[in-house]
Amino acid sequence: MTTTTTPPAERVEAPVRPRRVRSGSVIGSTGLYVATGIAALLFLIPFYLIVRNALMTDPEITGEEWKWFPSEIQWGNFTKPFDDPSVDFARSMWNSAVVGVLHTLGTLLVCSLAGYGLARIPYKHANKVFYAVLGTLMVPTAVTFVPSFVLVSSLGWIDTYRGLIIPGLFSGFTCFLFRQYFLGFPKELEEAARVDGLGYMGAYWRVVVPNSLNFFAAMATITFISGWNSFLWPLVIGQDPSAWTVQVALSNYMTGQTITYHLIFMATAISILPLVFVFLFLQRWLVQGIAQTGIKG
């Protein structure tokens, strides 16, 4: 007896219909890209003007005829801020770097510990302390400026790094952001650490901080930029030229007698380079860290 096998029927695939793209979504995406491009262009205009004027001569900057680019690039302008005898620009850059780094590290330490304590340590007056911290955000800086100066002066911290850094270590806003972030931090990790015998401080250093580096990097970026751009407090505390920060040094290029425009713009361009490098290096953590605050609790 012979058996016959029928070959399997060939599988016929249905023709793939082209996916219809709605015209509304295309127009919406195009409009979004156009709006983003315009916003980016407007954001870059000040940087273009800084670089353009820094590489020009004063007659070209103040001339009646607008020029998009220098007729001849003045590469020698790069060294002029450092050669000016009236302002020690290199020293001011170093002062800003020291103040910015130490201010950032100190603020992260103080505010993260305060935020962690408010978010995790049980205390019946924790909410009251938190509301008091929020209350500091409503007090204008001008109100506390004079008392802070009197205190720093009485301690002998004028023209010192201590006077420039220590009074601004605590930030109510940064403390608030840390508290909001720690409220959303997984409690299971901390409970496991306490089972292993760690207290609140041990869990903070060994568990919370290593798993929160993205948020710390975001806060470090914001704090460093704020410290680098600070002007009024360093102007009052740094009375000696050796204690000037870069922002105070820039203000001394504009006097009542003369204003050297290309020197001001070149010094400005050099002073923002550290901020650009910091932002480019930490930008991918900036938005992510702010988004992780949760704004809850």
UniProtKB/TrEMBL annotation:
Compartments, record wording: Cell membrane
Entry protein name: Carbohydrate ABC transporter permease
CDD domains to which the protein is assigned, alphabetical: TM_PBP2 (cd06261)
Membrane topology qualifier: Multi-pass membrane protein
Spans traversing the lipid bilayer: 26-50, 97-118, 130-158, 164-182, 203-225, 259-282
Pfam families, per database record: BPD_transp_1
Family, similarity comment: Belongs to the binding-protein-dependent transport system permease family.
Domain ABC transmembrane type-1: 93-282
Chief place where the protein resides: membrane
Keywords linked to the UniProt accession: Cell membrane, Membrane, Transmembrane, Transmembrane helix, Transport
